[in-house]
């Protein structure tokens, strides 16, 4: 409205550069390894979050664990089948903020869960031995496989 | 995308404004792209329907414009655009209604029900279909020149400020603006002011009134006082919600250099139903007048035909709002009252009473119509009317309604809504005379509304469903 | 510069500052933390409706402005409007209520088109569960727990004291349906009503929590035990328990849900005298025994005082004291409708040797239970035998 076309072009280029820089800034590859994920739990895998059925209920009155389906890409510690069902505690919260007195030590750097993303996860099994809250399992009618409990969940960028 | 959302206010709008004003090249194309992103944000597939409606009407308009006046080709193109547009609207909006009613009839006849095909209603379909349809009609009538290219036309149909819930902008209103429009500081400032005022109305008034209205209309058997409180709350909710959307739409339009028609003019100060329809959703009533009432013959074929035309227009206007018998009855209610007042020389039966009484009676009549508009079905509307007239007492858990209704917040906001509705000052007029104290007040309200947005649940505009 | 021009400039510049400032500040904060700006996540996902909704929600939830201002506004609305947000209601005399519990009583249920009937009928799930248990020789006793507004409606509404209306019509109807279907249940509503008629000041529920008080749960445990004895489903055991009074202080789950410390600070902690159950022989607090003939399923009404502070002072412990034997239990907050049965399916050993299953759920979960009321089969007999 009030600036010249030349200034406009210059600003556009500047903003584009800024966006590219910002886009590249934090997207460095990472295998998700850190002292927590490599030491906590009895099993450690790198796995792809295959899908999330339904929507996570709100965290108002209740805490809960929500079962997500993963495809294991690499097993670092312990044993795990190709497909695992993993309960994430209060999945609406970033992992770094999810832990409380009822969950025990859990955490990680995943801020939100999206199908298709790859996570490095420290696990325990079966979930009922570790999880003291309701377990929402949309796969209950599809499989009787044991459900894993996610202790530490880090994002993997490949 | 919703205007009163974090993503729109803090990301979509600034980005769109920034690039729009930095772009030296034609800006309509950029607005078109952003409008499709805005619309596709709900469901990207819906955008393809809008593209289809735009393309069909653009092609038909082009055929009309390039055919000789009075030619059969010209008429065929117009008919094609009307049929395709209304069929599209009918399929997405009314097919399930038709199926359900057909099944109900089959049930009465003892036959088995047919399977009902579930169709998702694309948001704002009634608005963009009507808008795109106005183009071939305007070109056919010679009211508008043909558009210079498809992108300009698609931009007109999709223009995000008023895409979802109006005001319904006819092609001939902004044909020239699509080619040439001014961008001035004054226009931008008044646009920003209108937008902020609308934002505050929606968040601070309409959403607050939505709580008690929803509670009473969902209750099993509200007490008489609760029923009246609920419908008054709904009257304020729908007015401050819809007029807020219109203010924001017009404000956004000004920020991008457009001037859209105003949609409201103190409707709750109407002293008759005829007056109400001059003040409420003005863009719809003028659209229906110009594209339906007048083609039906208007008042040119005698009194009887005029009354019938008025009733038909309002019936269809009711159905335009939604595929439900409640909307049909709502339309019929208004249509009959309009016809009755027309019969009395555009005067209400209470026209000799003092103005405050006329306004009060009209408001009560409008409240009755809002019961039909808000109730989920005829059965619920009937039960609600019974509650309003004390024919059904509160029972069971409904006695607990007072704990939800008569809270400090609801009473304060309802009083504020009533005061604003009665004083009749309209956002357009208020922002037309901006002073520094008004700017301070406006910015204060805007910031307060933004902060309130963070603690409110997702609350889309009521007219999105239409 | 003319005044009007100055006014316009002021308005436009502050407006632009507000709408541009948020996104820029957010990006700078994230870059400062060494993270990629979250706004760019938009380009990392398939642009479908679900991903776009999720993106929008995350952007709003993690915004610095929302995080900073939400508690301020929540407190301002509480102070100005007496409003505790979407999920909580302020009652009288400092009592707080969970709004879905009130909604359940207000709205018609079974539902009209306004609020669709849940996909699964609770009665169907309960009858199927009862029948599956019966095939294994196990009896089922259902215990619908009254929500707080059903027991203390006058603490919520000024009108109820005058009208003395029964506010829990939907649950009353449901219990009648249970009876017609031959399902055994315990009517705690009548029990509590009679208790309040006898002593209007009886504190059967906590003021700022959705759950019953120690007095309320003891009354419920006693009624359930009476019913078990009367039906002869399970004989009393021989374990001797004693009570130890432990006083705790609770903020209450309604305030916890509101999650605004400044609001919570306005309310005193509720002092609760609990009766912890101690096994006389060992001096240890009560603990479950998976081999017990009685399995108790339920929601947070079973968790409170039992697995929460002070421990072993909840419904299960008091029922054990009444029945003079340990119980087995599955407890799932908000999950008594379906989640407890799914957990039972994963734990077939819990069914071994059972004679009775007690199934508690709060009344509002008839409509709002997490995961609805799915039909869940029992673990097969071979699995139980093998385990």
Describe the structure in brief.
The complex is a heterotrimer of chains A (158), B (466) and C (387). Chain A has 158 residues and is of the alpha/beta class.
| Secondary-structure element series of chain A | HEEEHEEEE
Radius of gyration of CA atoms of chain C, rounded to a whole number: 26 Å
Largest sheet of chain A: 5 strands, mixed, barrel
Number of strands of chain C: 9
What's the number of structural domains of chain A?
Answer: 1
What is the overall silhouette of chain A?
globular
End-to-end C-alpha gap of chain C: 88 Å
- CA gyration radius of chain A, whole angstroms: 20 Å
User: How would you state the average pLDDT of chain A, rounded?
Assistant: 83
- Overall structural class of chain A, as computed from helix and strand content, comes to alpha/beta
What is the element string of chain C, with H for helices and E for strands?
HHHEEHHEHHHEHHEHHEEHHEHEHH
Bin the strand percentage of chain C. 5-15%
Flag low-confidence runs of chain C: 111-115
Query: Count of DSSP E strands of chain A?
Result: 7
Spell out the blueprint of helices and strands:
The complex is a heterotrimer of chains A (158), B (466) and C (387).
Chain A: H1 5-25, E1 43-51, E2 64-77, E3 83-89, H2 95-98, E4 107-108, E5 118-124, E6 134-136, E7 147-156
Parallel strand pairs in A: 2-6, 3-7, 4-7
Antiparallel strand pairs in A: 1-2, 1-5, 2-3, 5-7
Chain B: H1 6-22, H2 27-40, H3 44-66, H4 72-108, H5 125-141, H6 150-158, H7 171-179, H8 185-218, H9 224-255, H10 273-279, H11 282-293, H12 302-321, H13 325-343, H14 355-374, H15 378-388, H16 402-405, H17 408-423, H18 427-432, H19 436-453
Helix pairs in contact in B: 1-2, 2-3, 2-6, 3-4, 3-5, 3-6, 4-5, 5-6, 6-7, 8-9, 8-17, 8-19, 9-14, 9-15, 11-12, 12-13, 13-14, 14-15
Chain C: H1 3-32, H2 49-62, H3 64-81, E1 88-90, E2 96-98, H4 99-106, H5 122-135, E3 139-145, H6 148-151, H7 160-163, H8 169-180, E4 184-185, H9 188-198, H10 214-231, E5 241-250, H11 253-258, H12 261-264, E6 270-279, E7 294-298, H13 300-303, H14 315-323, E8 328-331, H15 339-346, E9 356-362, H16 365-368, H17 381-386
Parallel strand pairs in C: 3-4, 3-9, 7-8, 7-9
Antiparallel strand pairs in C: 1-2, 5-6
